[in-house]
Amino acid sequence: MKRIGIILGGGILLVIVLFGWWVFSRPERGTTGSVSTHFRLLGPNDKIVIDGFDDPKVQGVACHISRAQTGGMKGELGVAEDTSDASIACRQVGPIKIVGELKDGERVFDERRSLVFKKLQVVRFFDRERNVLVYVAYSDRVIEGSPKNSISTVPIMGWPAP
């Protein structure tokens, strides 16, 4: 009986640790707003959520990403699988300063879209020939990928002094 209690206690501790990791490992961003798209009688409505985030290695670039978020009871509990639809827009918002080495395909944002198998990602490429940063938003699954994607480009230009 004591052994069962230890196993249950360890399982509960594992669930608490995993939940804490899931909550606190989310990328830093600010929710700009949301629009309700489908009424749900139980739980929150389905919606489109817009978040803003900064590129961690390129100062002066801000991105906004919009994506569908499933509501209802599954959405409330965090077990719904959201669609792969997403859109991104990135713009120069100040003088651009590159901090560190830029690697093509480097992830600058990610977010889980289901409990385990699906993730929304934003990766950055540097088109040196055109002096442009290219951001690609896409959703992937462990089992199968997703062809749905969206891109945004930011030309690296001078910024007028105030």
What does this structure look like?
By secondary structure, the chain is an alpha+beta fold. The chain has one domain (29-155). The protein has 2 helices and 8 strands, in the order αβββαβββββ. The longest helix has 23 residues, at 2-24. The model is unreliable at 14-28 (pLDDT under 50).
Secondary-structure map with pairings?
Elements (H helix, E strand, L loop, with lengths): L1 H23 L5 E9 L7 E9 L3 E12 L2 H6 L8 E13 L7 E7 L5 E10 L4 E10 L7 E7 L7
Antiparallel strand pairs: 1-2, 2-3, 3-4, 5-6, 6-7, 7-8
Which keywords apply here?
162 residues; alpha+beta; four-stranded antiparallel sheet; globular
Cα-based radius of gyration, to the nearest Å: 19 Å
In which order are the strands of the major sheet placed? 1-2-3-4
Give helix and strand order, one letter per element, not per position: HEEEHEEEEE
Report the biggest beta sheet as strand number plus sense, adding barrel if it closes.
Answer: 4 strands, antiparallel
Mean of the pLDDT scores? 79
Low-confidence stretches: 14-28
Total beta-strand segments:
8
What is the global morphology?
globular
**How many helices does DSSP assign?**
2
Structurally, the number of domains stands at: 1
Q: Structural class of the secondary structure composition?
A: alpha+beta
Give the N-terminus to C-terminus distance in angstroms: 73 Å
- Strand % is over 45%
Q: Provide the helix percentage.
A: 10-25%
